[in-house]
Write a structure and sequence with these properties.
single chain; 390 residues; alpha/beta; Rossmann fold; 2 domains; 13 helices; 40% helix
Length: 390
């Protein structure tokens, strides 16, 4: 094992210890609140812990004619309840895992399923799962399914890695998930090789109700090309490769912490709310996709690629493997500073070529990469799982 591999393992271990201590602290708070509640109940002679026969009968997740999970079709008699474990929630959130969960959740609501979220940064204990929850989907490698507290023994636990696949497979609790979804074939094969678990393919996608060609332009967001994403002190190729001062086009940069990079300061527009991204993409001609090592080496495609194309902007990416797998090599790819600058200049000076490329890629997204597609896949896999296991 190389020194770098050992160093990465040690970093992952320290990271897990950090979050485990945080979870332990929240567990103490949760247990303390339970104790205080019990004392209060005893003093008022109220028994809040009685479970009715009706509630017990409703703990099965897929019901049909009053029976339980042994049925293999999802019924409309009792809405399925799904909870997503994410970093944060709310209008001012900046974590991509939350937006992915949010959009898939919106698509799943078309089945009349109930969707909710558990936030790592929230006030509660995110391992406490209500008894009426049927499926938990974690988008975070630090979530440990072994710590879940839930009286529903039929709870289906799903892992959906979007990035940091090495962290996911090295987590001691990873094998405790009932189902695993992977965003690319490369990531899928990596998980199989490292764990012998059999994942299913479920890439990220776009919500066409939010991101589409009908979104109007907005003057304050008008640009020739832009980038949307934050800087978290990890190496990003855009820092080394993009030189907007040498290009005669209007560039805008959105996200967090880009004021730390001197050459980008005059282009930095600050953090932008997720709800405004459709207008940003509709108001530019080109969106640069800077996939980091946690995604691009595994062929995982960022949500900005699908979202921007759905809105009618051309995407130029450094994610060569993802572009090849997901778009059959039709998505423009850069691997150097020279290639990035050339692609920007070429497509901004050749409108017909840019528009033709957009139409081709947008058609691919709308046909194959929407969250409606992903919701149908998830529903099918859940039905197959229940048929095989119950």
């Amino acid at each position: 094992m190389s020194f770098l591999s050992k160093l990465n393992i040690n970093r992952n271990s320290l990271r897990r210890v950090k979050y485990r201590l945080s979870d332990d602290f929240k567990l103490i708070k949760y247990q303390t609140s339970l104790f205080q509640r019990k004392i209060s109940d005893l003093s008022s002679n109220v028994n809040n812990n009685a479970i009715t026969k009706e509630k017990m009968e409703n703990e099965g997740i897929f019901t049909k004619n009053g029976s339980d999970i042994h049925n293999t079709e999802i019924s409309t008699l009792k809405p399925l309840k799904i909870v997503f474990a994410v970093s944060e929630i709310g209008e001012d959130a900046s974590a991509g895992d939350y937006f992915t969960a949010l959009e898939l959740g919106e698509a799943l609501k078309n089945f009349n399923w109930e969707i909710s979220f558990l936030s790592r940064n929230g006030p509660g204990y995110w391992y406490k799962i209500d008894a009426d929850v049927d499926v938990l989907i974690s988008l975070l490698d630090i979530y440990d399914p072994r710590r879940i507290k839930c009286s529903n023994k039929s709870l289906i636990k799903i892992a959906w890695p979007r990035n940091w696949f090495d962290r996911w497979v090295s987590h001691p609790g990873f094998r405790s998930y009932d189902m695993i979804f992977a965003p690319s074939k490369i990531a899928l094969e990596y998980i199989i090789k490292k764990t012998n678990k059999k994942p299913f393919l479920l890439p990220i996608a776009t919500n066409t109700a939010r991101f589409n060609g009908s979104v109007p332009q907005k003057n304050e967001y008008l640009s020739d090309y832009c980038f949307t994403g934050s800087y978290w002190d990890y190496p990003r190729e855009i820092v080394e490769m993009l030189e907007p001062e040498k290009l005669p086009y209007k560039f805008k940069l959105y996200g967090k912490n880009w004021d730390k990079i001197g050459k980008f300061k005059k282009y930095y527009q600050g953090f932008i709310n997720y709800s405004k991204l459709p207008e940003v993409y509709a108001s530019t001609k080109i969106v640069i996709d800077d996939a980091n090592n946690a995604t691009k080496n595994y062929g995982a495609v960022n949500s900005r690629v699908f979202d921007a194309l759905a809105c009618g902007a051309l995407v130029i990416t450094n994610g060569e493997k993802g572009a090849k797998e997901t778009f059959n090599g039709k998505l423009p790819v850069f691997k150097s500073k020279e290639e990035l600058n050339h692609l920007i200049e070429y497509y901004l000076s050749n409108d017909n070529e840019r528009i033709a490329k957009i139409k081709e890629l947008q058609s691919c997204v709308l046909e194959n990469h929407t969250y409606i597609n992903r919701a149908n896949t998830l529903k099918k896999k859940l039905e197959e799982y229940t048929q095989d296991h119950y």
